[in-house]
Automatic annotation (TrEMBL):
The protein's name: Acetyl-CoA:oxalate CoA-transferase
Keyword terms of this UniProt record: Transferase
EC number(s) reported in the record: 2.8.3.19
Listed SUPFAM superfamilies: CoA-transferase family III (CaiB/BaiF)
Length: 381
C-alpha cells in the first residue's frame, strides 16, 4: 500500500526520542517507537551511520540496509567528540522522553553523558542502552556482533543438518530480538514513569537476548541433561514438524497434536498410521520420526505440494509451502496485512507487525528526512 503522511496519532504520540544508535538493534528499536507515533530524532556522527555503506544495493549512495531500519525518524549529524555538539545534544535531551544509544561502555561516560550524569540533569529521561554483554562481568564492556553471539549463545550449535556443521541463522535474529527487547524495556520504563515520575536506565544486551531464544533447547537440557543436537528443519520435541518432499515443491508440516496427525493421515490415504502404536501419540511420533518421515514422504511424493498444503490448512492442519523471499513479500495476504509499505520518493519497506485498533502505526517520515528540532507537542487541551 502507498502511505500518505498523516499526523502522529499513534499510541506513542507526544513521546520524544533521541536515537543515538547505529547499525541494527538500536535503530530497529527507534523505528518501532517511531512507527507507533513517537517523534524520533536520529543523531548520526559526521560520517553517518555505518549501514549507509552496507550494500549493494544502493539508492543515491545509501544502502538498502539503512533504509530498512530508519523510517519515521528525522536525521541530524553531530560530532559528540566536540564540546559544542555535546551541548546541542544536551539541549535536545531537555525536551526528550527517551534516549536510545549503543555506544561502547565508557564512551558516553567519558563525555559526561553517561546515565549517572544525565539522570541528575534529566530525572524523567528513560535512557536505553543496547550493548553486547552489559557493562560488567567476565565479558562486560566487550563489543557484541550478531553472528558472534549466535555462536556464543549456542544458537549455531542447534542450527543446521544433523550431520552438518553449525550454521548461522540466515538473518540477524539476535540483533533484531535485542531491538525488540529494547523497545519493550522502553515501554515498561515509560509505564512505570507514570507512577513514579522518574526515568530509569534500560539495557538490552545481545548476549542475554541470544540466550533468551534457546527455547525449547534450554528447557530440554535443564530437564534431561542431554546436550541438544542439530535436527535440520525438524522440531526437537514434536513430529511431523518438518519439511517434507512432494511431487513438486517441499512443504512444511507443523503437526502439533494427535487430531491434526489423524487428519493428515486420512488425507493421504494412510489412516492406519494414526492407530499404529509407533505413531499414535506425540511422544511416540517424536521417538520414531525417522521411519515416520519415510512413510509420509513415500505417499507425499505423489501429491502437488502447494495444492496439498492448501487442502491441509483448510482442514485444520498447520502447514505451508516453502516460499522464497520475493514470493512471501508478494503474497496476497502480505498485502492484506499491510506488511509492505510504500512512501513518496521510492521508499518501500516492511510494515509494522503490531496492529492497534484505535491507534495504529503510521508512516510519516521516509529514511533520510532531515530536521534538527522536535515537532511541537500536541495540545493536552
Amino acid at each position: 500500500m502507498t502511505i500518505k503522511t498523516p499526523p502522529s496519532t499513534g499510541a506513542l504520540a507526544g513521546i520524544r526520542v533521541v536515537d543515538l544508535s547505529r547499525i541494527l538493534g538500536g535503530p530497529f528499536c527507534g523505528q518501532i517507537l517511531g512507527d507507533h507515533g513517537a517523534d524520533v530524532l536520529k543523531i548520526e556522527p559526521p560520517q553517518g551511520d555505518d549501514t549507509r555503506t552496507w550494500g549493494p544495493p544502493f539508492r543515491d549512495g545509501v544502502a538498502s540496509y539503512y533504509f530498512g531500519l530508519n523510517r519515521n525518524k528525522r536525521v541530524m549529524r553531530l560530532d559528540l567528540t566536540t564540546e559544542a555538539d555535546r551541548e546541542v545534544l544536551l539541549a535536545l535531551l531537555a525536551d526528550a522522553d527517551v534516549l536510545v544509544e549503543n555506544f561502547k561502555t565508557g564512551t558516553l561516560e567519558k563525555w559526561g553523558l553517561g546515565y549517572d550524569a544525565l539522570s541528575q540533569r534529566f530525572p524523567r529521561l528513560v535512557h536505553c542502552r543496547v550493548s553486547g554483554f552489559g557493562a560488567d562481568g567476565p565479558l562486560g564492556g566487550l563489543p557484541g556482533y550478531d553472528a558472534a553471539i549466535q555462536a556464543m549463545a549456542g544458537i549455531m550449535s542447534i542450527n543446521g543438518e544433523p550431520n552438518g556443521d553449525p550454521l548461522r541463522v540466515g538473518l540477524p535474529v539476535v540483533d533484531m530480538v535485542t531491538g525488540l527487547n529494547a523497545t519493550l524495556g522502553v515501554l515498561l520504563a515509560l509505564q512505570e514513569r507514570e507512577r513514579s515520575g522518574r526515568g530509569q536506565f534500560v539495557e538490552a544486551a545481545l548476549y542475554d537476548s541470544g540466550l533468551s531464544l534457546l527455547h525449547p533447547h534450554a528447557a530440554n537440557w535443564f530437564m534431561s541433561g542431554k546436550a541438544p543436537q542439530r535436527t535440520g528443519n525438524a522440531h526437537p520435541n514434536i513430529y511431523p514438524y518438518d519439511t517434507v518432499a512432494t511431487a513438486t515443491d517441499p512443504i512444511f508440516l507443523a503437526v502439533g497434536n494427535d487430531r491434526q496427525f489423524r487428519i493428515l493421515c486420512e488425507r493421504l490415504g494412510l489412516a492406519a498410521l494414526a492407530d499404529d502404536e509407533r505413531y499414535a501419540t506425540a511422544g511416540a511420533r517424536s521417538v520414531n520420526r525417522a521411519t515416520l518421515k519415510v512413510e509420509l514422504e513415500a505417499r507425499m511424493r505423489e501429491v502437488d505440494g502447494k495444492s496439498f498444503a492448501d487442502e491441509l490448512a483448510a482442514a485444520g492442519v498447520p502447514c505451508a509451502p516453502v516460499l522464497s523471499v520475493p514470493d512471501a513479500l508478494e503474497h496476497p495476504h502480505t498485502a492484506h496485512r499491510e506488511m509492505v509499505v510504500e512512501m513518496p520518493g521510492g521508499y518501500k519497506g516492511l510494515g509494522a507487525p503490531v496492529k492497534l485498533s484505535r491507534t495504529p502505526a503510521t508512516y510519516r517520515h521516509a529514511p533520510l528526512t532531515e530536521g534538527d528540532t522536535f515537532l511541537p507537542r500536541e495540545s493536552e487541551d
